[in-house]
Amino acid sequence: IYLSSKATGDYTAAYAMFSDSMKGATHFDTWQIQTQSFNAKAGSVLSRHVRKITCYKDPPSAPLPGIYVAVDYSSEFDQVPIHCGYVAWHRGPNGDYQVIHEETSTL
Question: Average pLDDT, stretch 38-61?
């Protein structure tokens, strides 16, 4: 849902999935402008594939205890044939998963 929200321009919904620490490090206006710029350059999503899912429980370097999930993916857009990245989520005390980190790369 997170990546789909970003790709379709539902920036408020995507940003709402950020953890408090991610929101503190990534202000909405800046993030939205960067995401809109990428979407305008890339065009429509042609495909997206999950390449790997890794789950961790209480990793030693984590800022909070709990379950962490990292998803590696690759995408293809109209104008960007090679796009890849990963999104990491943390399961909060209420059971919801929140985005705590994201990295992307294009060729």
Answer: 94
